[in-house]
Automatic annotation (TrEMBL):
InterPro entries: Plipid/glycerol_acylTrfase
Record lineage: Bacteria, Bacillati, Actinomycetota, Actinomycetes, Micrococcales
Protein name: 1-acyl-sn-glycerol-3-phosphate acyltransferase
Cellular component GO terms, alphabetical: plasma membrane
Region feature (Disordered): 229-249
SUPFAM superfamilies, per the entry: Glycerol-3-phosphate (1)-acyltransferase
GO MF terms held by the record: 1-acylglycerol-3-phosphate O-acyltransferase activity
Keyword Cell inner membrane: no
Taxonomic source organism: Antribacter soli
Length: 249
Protein backbone atom coordinates (compact mmCIF):
# COMPACT_ATOMS: atom_id res chain seq x y z
CA UNK A 1 0.00 0.00 0.00
CA UNK A 2 2.79 2.42 0.94
CA UNK A 3 4.47 1.69 -2.40
CA UNK A 4 1.47 2.97 -4.34
CA UNK A 5 1.16 6.03 -2.09
CA UNK A 6 4.85 6.82 -2.72
CA UNK A 7 4.50 6.25 -6.46
CA UNK A 8 1.25 8.08 -7.11
CA UNK A 9 0.97 10.65 -4.30
CA UNK A 10 4.23 11.53 -2.54
CA UNK A 11 7.32 10.92 -4.69
CA UNK A 12 6.08 9.92 -8.15
CA UNK A 13 4.41 13.22 -9.08
CA UNK A 14 7.55 15.16 -8.09
CA UNK A 15 9.79 12.91 -10.19
CA UNK A 16 7.44 13.17 -13.16
CA UNK A 17 7.47 16.95 -12.98
CA UNK A 18 11.25 17.18 -12.59
CA UNK A 19 12.36 14.52 -15.09
CA UNK A 20 9.48 14.13 -17.57
CA UNK A 21 10.22 10.38 -17.83
CA UNK A 22 9.50 8.53 -21.07
CA UNK A 23 9.53 4.88 -22.09
CA UNK A 24 9.66 2.88 -25.30
CA UNK A 25 8.72 -0.79 -25.45
CA UNK A 26 6.59 -0.90 -22.30
CA UNK A 27 4.40 -3.48 -24.03
CA UNK A 28 7.27 -5.96 -23.70
CA UNK A 29 6.71 -6.16 -19.92
CA UNK A 30 4.04 -8.79 -19.15
CA UNK A 31 0.91 -7.62 -17.35
CA UNK A 32 1.26 -10.44 -14.83
CA UNK A 33 3.53 -13.30 -13.88
CA UNK A 34 7.25 -13.38 -13.01
CA UNK A 35 9.86 -11.64 -15.14
CA UNK A 36 13.41 -10.37 -14.72
CA UNK A 37 14.11 -6.79 -15.75
CA UNK A 38 17.83 -6.72 -16.59
CA UNK A 39 19.07 -3.16 -16.98
CA UNK A 40 22.23 -1.17 -17.46
CA UNK A 41 23.07 0.86 -14.36
CA UNK A 42 24.19 4.43 -14.88
CA UNK A 43 23.03 6.22 -11.71
CA UNK A 44 21.24 5.79 -8.38
CA UNK A 45 18.12 7.34 -9.87
CA UNK A 46 17.74 4.36 -12.24
CA UNK A 47 15.95 2.46 -9.47
CA UNK A 48 13.40 5.26 -9.14
CA UNK A 49 12.76 6.14 -12.78
CA UNK A 50 12.19 2.60 -14.11
CA UNK A 51 9.47 1.65 -11.58
CA UNK A 52 7.81 5.00 -12.22
CA UNK A 53 7.40 4.11 -15.89
CA UNK A 54 5.72 0.73 -15.38
CA UNK A 55 2.24 -0.01 -14.02
CA UNK A 56 3.52 -3.05 -12.08
CA UNK A 57 5.69 -2.86 -8.99
CA UNK A 58 9.36 -3.65 -9.55
CA UNK A 59 11.36 -5.09 -6.68
CA UNK A 60 15.09 -4.40 -6.42
CA UNK A 61 17.73 -5.50 -3.93
CA UNK A 62 19.37 -2.88 -1.71
CA UNK A 63 22.32 -2.85 0.68
CA UNK A 64 21.25 -3.76 4.20
CA UNK A 65 23.04 -0.58 5.37
CA UNK A 66 20.12 1.43 4.00
CA UNK A 67 17.85 -0.23 6.55
CA UNK A 68 20.01 -0.02 9.66
CA UNK A 69 20.79 3.69 9.94
CA UNK A 70 20.28 5.45 13.26
CA UNK A 71 18.44 8.64 14.13
CA UNK A 72 15.66 10.35 12.23
CA UNK A 73 17.55 10.27 8.92
CA UNK A 74 18.22 6.55 9.25
CA UNK A 75 14.57 5.79 9.94
CA UNK A 76 13.42 7.94 7.04
CA UNK A 77 15.82 6.25 4.61
CA UNK A 78 14.79 2.79 5.82
CA UNK A 79 11.11 3.67 5.57
CA UNK A 80 11.55 5.08 2.09
CA UNK A 81 13.44 2.02 0.86
CA UNK A 82 10.82 -0.34 2.20
CA UNK A 83 8.09 1.87 0.78
CA UNK A 84 9.43 1.66 -2.77
CA UNK A 85 9.80 -2.10 -2.56
CA UNK A 86 13.55 -2.40 -2.01
CA UNK A 87 14.56 -5.69 -0.37
CA UNK A 88 17.50 -5.56 2.08
CA UNK A 89 20.38 -7.93 1.39
CA UNK A 90 23.70 -8.23 3.19
CA UNK A 91 26.32 -7.86 0.46
CA UNK A 92 29.30 -8.57 2.70
CA UNK A 93 30.87 -11.98 3.11
CA UNK A 94 31.27 -14.97 0.82
CA UNK A 95 27.59 -15.96 0.92
CA UNK A 96 26.28 -12.56 -0.18
CA UNK A 97 25.80 -13.54 -3.83
CA UNK A 98 23.91 -16.69 -2.88
CA UNK A 99 21.65 -14.70 -0.54
CA UNK A 100 20.86 -12.22 -3.31
CA UNK A 101 20.14 -15.05 -5.73
CA UNK A 102 17.75 -16.77 -3.31
CA UNK A 103 15.98 -13.51 -2.58
CA UNK A 104 15.49 -12.85 -6.28
CA UNK A 105 14.17 -16.37 -6.84
CA UNK A 106 11.67 -15.88 -4.02
CA UNK A 107 10.40 -12.68 -5.61
CA UNK A 108 9.96 -14.47 -8.94
CA UNK A 109 8.28 -17.47 -7.30
CA UNK A 110 5.69 -15.05 -5.95
CA UNK A 111 4.94 -13.95 -9.52
CA UNK A 112 6.50 -10.49 -9.25
CA UNK A 113 8.83 -8.35 -11.37
CA UNK A 114 12.44 -8.46 -10.21
CA UNK A 115 14.84 -5.71 -11.25
CA UNK A 116 18.54 -6.51 -11.52
CA UNK A 117 21.67 -4.81 -12.82
CA UNK A 118 23.81 -7.54 -14.44
CA UNK A 119 26.95 -5.42 -14.08
CA UNK A 120 26.58 -5.70 -10.30
CA UNK A 121 27.27 -2.02 -9.67
CA UNK A 122 26.97 1.37 -11.35
CA UNK A 123 29.09 2.04 -14.40
CA UNK A 124 31.98 4.31 -13.39
CA UNK A 125 32.05 6.13 -16.73
CA UNK A 126 28.81 5.55 -18.65
CA UNK A 127 30.11 2.55 -20.57
CA UNK A 128 28.57 -0.92 -20.37
CA UNK A 129 30.63 -3.50 -18.50
CA UNK A 130 30.69 -7.28 -18.41
CA UNK A 131 27.67 -9.00 -16.83
CA UNK A 132 28.05 -11.20 -13.81
CA UNK A 133 26.50 -14.65 -14.16
CA UNK A 134 24.02 -14.26 -11.30
CA UNK A 135 21.35 -12.98 -13.67
CA UNK A 136 21.85 -16.04 -15.88
CA UNK A 137 21.56 -18.46 -12.99
CA UNK A 138 18.42 -16.72 -11.77
CA UNK A 139 16.87 -16.96 -15.22
CA UNK A 140 17.64 -20.65 -15.60
CA UNK A 141 16.53 -21.63 -12.10
CA UNK A 142 13.30 -19.64 -12.21
CA UNK A 143 12.39 -20.16 -15.85
CA UNK A 144 11.25 -16.51 -15.92
CA UNK A 145 11.78 -14.47 -19.09
CA UNK A 146 14.53 -11.86 -19.06
CA UNK A 147 13.52 -8.43 -20.34
CA UNK A 148 16.49 -6.22 -21.33
CA UNK A 149 16.25 -2.56 -20.39
CA UNK A 150 18.40 0.46 -21.28
CA UNK A 151 18.21 3.50 -19.04
CA UNK A 152 18.83 6.69 -20.99
CA UNK A 153 20.30 9.97 -19.72
CA UNK A 154 20.50 9.11 -16.03
CA UNK A 155 24.30 9.31 -15.96
CA UNK A 156 24.09 12.82 -17.39
CA UNK A 157 21.50 13.89 -14.83
CA UNK A 158 23.35 12.24 -11.96
CA UNK A 159 27.04 11.69 -12.64
CA UNK A 160 29.12 9.90 -10.01
CA UNK A 161 29.29 12.03 -6.87
CA UNK A 162 26.17 14.07 -7.53
CA UNK A 163 23.44 13.57 -4.89
CA UNK A 164 20.47 15.38 -6.47
CA UNK A 165 20.07 14.70 -10.20
CA UNK A 166 19.66 17.77 -12.39
CA UNK A 167 16.29 18.29 -13.98
CA UNK A 168 16.10 16.88 -17.52
CA UNK A 169 14.07 14.25 -19.41
CA UNK A 170 15.05 10.69 -18.49
CA UNK A 171 13.88 7.51 -20.13
CA UNK A 172 14.03 3.77 -20.61
CA UNK A 173 13.99 1.52 -23.66
CA UNK A 174 12.55 -1.95 -23.05
CA UNK A 175 13.46 -4.81 -25.37
CA UNK A 176 11.66 -8.01 -26.24
CA UNK A 177 11.73 -10.82 -23.64
CA UNK A 178 14.56 -13.35 -23.85
CA UNK A 179 13.67 -17.02 -23.37
CA UNK A 180 16.35 -19.35 -22.03
CA UNK A 181 14.20 -22.47 -21.56
CA UNK A 182 16.56 -24.30 -23.94
CA UNK A 183 19.10 -24.36 -21.10
CA UNK A 184 16.73 -25.78 -18.48
CA UNK A 185 18.60 -27.90 -15.93
CA UNK A 186 22.00 -26.49 -16.91
CA UNK A 187 22.25 -23.76 -14.26
CA UNK A 188 25.39 -25.36 -12.79
CA UNK A 189 27.29 -25.27 -16.08
CA UNK A 190 29.56 -22.24 -15.89
CA UNK A 191 30.00 -22.09 -19.66
CA UNK A 192 26.24 -21.98 -20.18
CA UNK A 193 25.92 -19.29 -17.49
CA UNK A 194 28.60 -17.20 -19.18
CA UNK A 195 26.88 -17.55 -22.57
CA UNK A 196 23.48 -16.58 -21.15
CA UNK A 197 24.91 -13.58 -19.27
CA UNK A 198 26.66 -12.40 -22.45
CA UNK A 199 23.46 -12.76 -24.46
CA UNK A 200 21.56 -10.67 -21.92
CA UNK A 201 24.25 -8.00 -21.91
CA UNK A 202 24.35 -7.92 -25.69
CA UNK A 203 20.59 -7.31 -25.76
CA UNK A 204 21.05 -4.38 -23.36
CA UNK A 205 23.92 -3.08 -25.49
CA UNK A 206 21.78 -3.12 -28.63
CA UNK A 207 19.19 -0.99 -26.86
CA UNK A 208 21.57 1.47 -25.21
CA UNK A 209 24.26 1.87 -27.87
CA UNK A 210 26.83 2.22 -25.09
CA UNK A 211 30.52 1.54 -25.54
CA UNK A 212 31.27 -1.96 -24.23
CA UNK A 213 34.13 -2.93 -21.92
CA UNK A 214 34.93 -6.62 -21.42
CA UNK A 215 35.74 -6.16 -17.75
CA UNK A 216 33.69 -6.17 -14.57
CA UNK A 217 32.63 -2.70 -13.46
CA UNK A 218 33.85 -3.42 -9.93
CA UNK A 219 37.34 -4.08 -11.29
CA UNK A 220 37.29 -0.82 -13.25
CA UNK A 221 36.20 1.06 -10.12
CA UNK A 222 39.03 -0.49 -8.12
CA UNK A 223 41.55 0.61 -10.76
CA UNK A 224 40.18 4.13 -10.73
CA UNK A 225 40.28 4.24 -6.93
CA UNK A 226 43.92 3.19 -7.04
CA UNK A 227 44.71 6.12 -9.31
CA UNK A 228 44.79 4.20 -12.56
CA UNK A 229 42.55 4.22 -15.62
CA UNK A 230 39.59 2.02 -16.42
CA UNK A 231 40.23 -0.49 -19.17
CA UNK A 232 39.87 0.67 -22.79
CA UNK A 233 36.78 -0.50 -24.65
CA UNK A 234 36.97 -3.89 -26.28
CA UNK A 235 36.60 -4.23 -30.03
CA UNK A 236 33.52 -6.43 -29.83
CA UNK A 237 30.38 -6.89 -27.79
CA UNK A 238 29.70 -9.71 -25.29
CA UNK A 239 30.32 -13.13 -26.81
CA UNK A 240 32.52 -11.67 -29.55
CA UNK A 241 29.57 -10.25 -31.51
CA UNK A 242 29.94 -7.08 -33.58
CA UNK A 243 29.19 -3.87 -31.75
CA UNK A 244 25.66 -2.63 -32.45
CA UNK A 245 24.91 0.84 -33.84
CA UNK A 246 23.99 3.55 -31.30
CA UNK A 247 20.37 3.41 -30.14
CA UNK A 248 17.99 6.10 -31.32
CA UNK A 249 16.96 8.53 -28.60
Amino acid sequence: MFYWVMKHVLVGPVLRLAYRPWIRGAENVPENGPAILASNHLAVIDSFILPLLLPRQVKFLGKSDYFTGSGLKGRLVAGFMRGVGTIPVDRSGGKASEAALRTGLRVLAEGDLFGIYPEGTRSPDGRLYRAKTGVARMALESGAPVIPVAMVGTNVAQPVGRVVPKFMPLGAIVGEPLDFSRYKGMEEDRFVLRAVADEIQYAILRLSGQEYVDMYAATAKARLAAGGDAAPAAGSAPGGKPLPPPAES
